[in-house]
């Protein structure tokens, strides 16, 4: 006998029903509970608990699916571990899907079957979003982005003031009093987007990319209204919110006559814009998109900028952001750039498609309630960094920069964390 | 044909139709508006070949004994299913003179065996044809496969984390298939035993009837999962043979 469900739970079940396409059906029915995925997940590696197994995170969603969509689940729920959607299961879902997964997708490639675990986790998060059960901390980030245009709710004037201050830095760097960071310029070729953490905490990364664009003689601008590349609505499973955020940037590019939208150094933001956004908008974009990493690599290949690798002699390693690399296919470009800019580059083990998440992915950075777990699982990354002997860690993602900076302090790594634009600017 | 032949036939038809219903839901393409960076074809090819190699999957190389047991278990299941279907279609499948049975056979394999010289020179193998040797090989193979299934079942019972992850269906499905392998092995090794054939047929009937309801239906979803995964990583340019070569 199924338990009574509330209107919100019913909404979540209807939502699940509406999403049951070939892909979701496949991944909800594929897991055989072999448990071999555990050793690919940093939560499980850090704490050997069955709740931390990727299979367990899939099962909380799949068990609800079985309860309402399969014969055995409807009539013999205990047989297949099918579960009602009720207060207990939703509570478990919040902890398992928000608190124990960075949606990095490392487990996917190593799964014996090939279950797309983060895809199922995101579906579960979407169900929670339908029930208004998204953790308040991360929801406030989404609300800020939707209400103010950027997830840190930076007032426009503050942003403009920061950029004006950075102009001085740029002019000093390139020794040109006319050099500026162009704001709201119409008729440019490219619109640049950035992570609000940059104007708030890492403003020099903006002057670094501005230096690169200046030397590459790029035609570009930043919008003072909508410049935020991040899309936390994607993490909380709010597709309508994610669509609004995506559409704003596309419209902004069109407004300034730009034919290309540059996706700033943000892993999940790049993924959301590049790969998920067109599906939220149910249309191909009217403008091109390119990640800052690809663009900078092109500049070097075309000779538009000429980094001098003798300027950076410290050992450098790369941290691969999961959403840009494994889930975005940008694997070689950052290596090409770093090899052009640094004389001593070493890889972490493992790296590339097989990398470990820094621990801040999946919205973990925005959920203070899981800070302890985030720092614990980050030890794997800290150990990886230490093993390279590197002095500089380069990563094309500001969320990763933030988490790596925390790990740097927590685990006394003694490294400097830089974005791609920063390391390139240093080598110019 | 005896009643258990008919039972098995009915269960196979039932299983086929039920699984077909599941399968038909999986072949509707999912529209993706994002501009691809690679191809689905490349990704699926990679997903079903290189990505499956034991040196590419932690689930294989970090758990090698379990991985090997799983491979042997699944090869055994496939073999046992083929054998039981052949035994159902051809009632005298793999009977031979050496077993004191009607030597007439319906398939070419046995006709060939009939013509062959015996390969045993004495002892218990005297007079054995290829049929007997094949039975022995299949029987031992299936028994090894059953042992692998049994081993994984024991692991599921004894490993506390795995046990917590499992539901009754996991235990029932694994037990049922392991029993089917044991029954199939018995049918191969003890063909003169009056119960060996009805036994494997009845167990197979139960297994085919249960298949569409529990986790055994993952045999459909496995292929779909590899396709979906290949399509996902292929479109994004993450997985392809070319990338593999470069890395």
Provide a short characterization of the protein structure.
Chain A is mainly α.
Could you walk me through the main structural features you see in this protein, from its secondary elements to its overall organization?
The complex is a heterodimer of chains A (428) and B (247). Chain A is built from 22 helices and eight strands. Chain A is mainly α. Chain A folds into three domains: 7-133, Orthogonal Bundle (Fumarate Reductase Iron-sulfur Protein, Chain B, domain 2), CATH 1.10.1060; 150-298, Rossmann fold (3-Layer(aba) Sandwich); 307-427, Rossmann fold (3-Layer(aba) Sandwich). Chain A has a four-stranded parallel beta sheet with strand order 2-1-3-4. Chain A has a four-stranded parallel beta sheet with strand order 6-5-7-8, with helices on both faces. In chain A, strand 3, helix 16 (267-281) and strand 4 (288-291) form a beta-alpha-beta unit. Chain A is globular and about 75 Å long. Chain A starts with 6 loop residues before the first helix and ends with a helix. Chain B is mainly α and 247 residues long. Chain B has two domains: 3-31 and 63-213; 33-58 and 217-247, no CATH class. The N and C termini of chain B lie far apart (58 Å). At the A-B interface, helix 2, helix 4, helix 6, helix 8 and helix 16 of A face helix 3, helix 4, helix 7, helix 8 and helix 10 of B.
Strand order of the largest sheet of chain A: 2-1-3-4
Report the total helices of chain B. 11
**Total strands of chain A:** 8
Q: Main beta sheet of chain A: strand number and arrangement?
A: 4 strands, parallel
Low-confidence stretches of chain A: none
Strand content of chain B: under 5%
Number of domain units of chain B: 2
Task: Encode the helix/strand succession of chain B as letters.
Answer: HHHHHHHHHHH
Architecture of the largest domain in chain A, according to CATH?
Answer: 3-Layer(aba) Sandwich
| N- to C-terminal distance of chain A | 69 Å
What fraction strand of chain A?
5-15%
